[in-house]
Amino acid sequence: MSEALGLTKPLQDAIAEAEELIANAPFIRTEADRLEGYEYLSGRIRMAMQTAFDYDLEQPLFVNPTHQFSKQGLDNPDAVYLNAFLREGVEYVVRGRRGTSADLSFQVMGGAYSADSAATSLMAFDERELEVDADGNFSFTYVAEPGAKTLIVREVFNDWDTEARGTITIERTDTLGRPRRELTAELLRKKYDVAARSLVGSIQTWFAFPHFFQFKEPVNTLTVPASTPGGLSSQFSSIGHYELAEDEAMIVTVPRCDDCTYQAIQIGSDWYASTDYETHQTSLTKAQAVADDDGVMRFVISERPPGPGGAPVANWLETTGHRTGPIMLRWQQLTRDLTAADGPVVEIVPVAEVAGRLPSLVALTEAEYAGRITARQRGIARRMLS
User: Fold this and answer.
1) Cβ–Cβ contacts within 10 Å for residue 98, how many?
2) Any bridge partners for residue 214, and if so which?
3) Is the backbone of residue 68 left (phi > 0), alpha (psi -120 to 50) or beta?
4) For 104-159, how does the pLDDT look when each residue is reduced to its tens digit (9 = 90+)?
5) 328 strand-pairing partners
6) With bands split at pLDDT 50, 70 and 90, how would you rate the model's confidence at 229?
7) What residues contact residue 40 under an 8 Å CB cut-off, 6+ apart?
């Protein structure tokens, strides 16, 4: 039998280094935090392998690196993320069929996010700039400009029950019909090395990233809506982070916006990732939320159900054991700029006082709330994010 080539050694070392980073994260308070970190690590390993072994500049394709089993960068529970790697000066053709999601956007990035800096956005637009035929088909040609490294596609869903995914492909016009490169030990060595660097780098990046944005703000506040940093062409966002005792609640009051196709709120964990949005209600879109008669949505972020008699309510966001974490509100495909009047107002109150302060809250039975969770599970399954 041939002697082992030692190709996986860099990845083995990187996994050990990544485990140390996770185990010693400064924000770990409980055993549940630690276990969540190890689950987060599994997603980072999965992403690193996908990045390295699906990375083919000669035969590009869209990969899905972020989903419910691989979370990063306060991932949006309403989004499907697709990435394709680019080579400067090469011509690409992107083809697809538009689904019925609320937003389909495209962004070309120069480089990647790191622990020291954000990536550069070179181009960003949404499907409103495409020519889409009566059957929903579209195509466009793009010659990768200097510095272009990645094409990111985001398909975002406002109504999980009714909106459906489209299809999309990418191809290099100069490599069609050619076989893939021959597999060699050197090529595999390079791929395992890429996976190793990607794994450690991604953990360090997302440890540092919230300090550029969320954690610059005072705790238990939310910013005035502003164009999202990073170049997303039609998204405004409001950001913040919370710190709540088990008997405290944050009431977030925000007008429902009818000048956009998508509006949503989510909370996350200190790993700067979404929390369980499949079997808990940790995010809500304007299609899933309830607006009061005055056109305002009133969300309650808390550990315990905040309704009358301790019952769950429609606009409850569950902290799922997290005393602290990031918050983000998003608006997409806006037809106007937002102002402070469109943004959220925050109030911290005891959970026991929420029902008295918000008389419009309607208590849900356990069965009714379970029905909402069932709808979330089915919505995720239809998107097939894994």
Assistant:
1) 18
2) none
3) alpha
4) 999 999 976 666 666 789 999 999 999 999 999 999 999 999 999 999 999 999 99
5) 239, 266
6) confident
7) 22, 71, 271, 273
- Dihedral (CA of 262, 252, 358, 368) sign: positive
- Tokens for 354, please give them: 């929420």
Distance between CA atoms of residues 323 and 236, nearest Å: 27
Q: What is the pLDDT of residue 381?
A: 94
Contact at 8 Å (CB) between 83 and 62? Answer: yes
Residue pair 170/57 in contact (Cβ under 8 Å)? The answer is no
Quote the CA–CA distance of 68 and 88 in Å, as a whole number. Answer: 32
Q: Is 179 exposed, middle or buried (0-12, 13-18, 19+ CB in 10 A)?
A: exposed
How wide is the angle at C-alpha 193 spanned by C-alphas 84 and 15, nearest 5°? 100
Q: Residues 298, 163, 319, CA angle at the centre, nearest 5°?
A: 35
Q: What percent of the chain has pLDDT over 70?
A: 96
DSSP 235-298: EEEEEEEEE--TTEEEEEEEEPPSSSSEEEEEEB-TTSSB---SSS--EEETTTS-B-TTSEEE
What whole-number distance in Å separates Cα of residue 66 and Cα of residue 202? Answer: 12
Determine the Cα–Cα distance for residues 360 and 356; give it in Å rounded to an integer.
9
Binned at pLDDT 50, 70 and 90, residue 1 comes out as very low
**How far apart are alpha carbons 314 and 157 in whole angstroms?**
19
Rounded to 10 degrees, the C-alpha dihedral 40/225/294/367 comes to: 0
CB neighbourhood size of 109 (10 A) = 23
* DSSP alpha helix (H) spans, 56-95: none
* Amino acid sitting at position 273: A
Considering only CA atoms, which of 306, 298, 307 is closest in space to residue 363? 307
| Domains of the chain, earliest start first | 9-212 (no CATH), 214-383 (2.60.120.1600)
